[in-house]
Design brief:
It is built from 9 helices and no strands. It is mainly alpha-helical. Helix 3 packs across helix 5 and helix 7 packs parallel to helix 9. It is globular, with a radius of gyration of 18 Å. The termini are far apart.
Amino acid sequence: MSDLDAWAGAALLVMAAGLLVVAALCGQSPVHARVVREGGTIFLPERVMQAGYHWIDRLAARATGLGLTADAVSWISLALGLAAGILAGATWLGGAAWVLALSGLGDGLDGAMARRQGTASAAGAVLDSVLDRYVEFFYCAGLVVYFAGQSLNQLVVLTALFGGFMVTYSTAKAEALHLTPPRGWMKRPERIVWLIAGSAVAAAARLGGWASDPILLSVVGIIAVAANVSALRRLRALAAAAAGR
């Protein structure tokens, strides 16, 4: 990992902090029903999510004007996710954080664009969900390579990946049973935000002479614990709701 990569991580953190300040100064963002329905958590507050969805809607309007389609953005997001995983595996965490952030932005844009263009469909939702899983796999695979030769650290990464998939599975199972998906921690937006932030902080830490690995591992560990606890709680609530019908 070079100093350039460390500065890239620091720049991303500064930009994110600036956006949060702008959101705070602009006051209350328009309310998005999806955010209200899913709710915020201690890992990603609802107000931050509302601001994020507001900016994504504005970007979606511009992207639609460029002639892009929602499916095209979905595939671009997948390619960026693969690139982010490769960068992470090559220990370029700052660059990986930037590219993963762009991939996550694309993941939010495709749905907003589909609604604006009147092309939202069940098939599109399935494609989006499947590609999301691949993006998470690509990045976590990159982190497994990053921690090469460190079996315990690699196990933490795999546990985080499994927990994330189980959170998503609980939502899919609820929808298949026509039940309201239980609320919980570490849904897809939270996991991506934490992976981006963790990678950026780990990269920027080198500028202060700190080691990157403990920081990155701590963040991935938080995701692993929170996601698996959330998945178990959601599945338990789902089982109770199904039994009570």
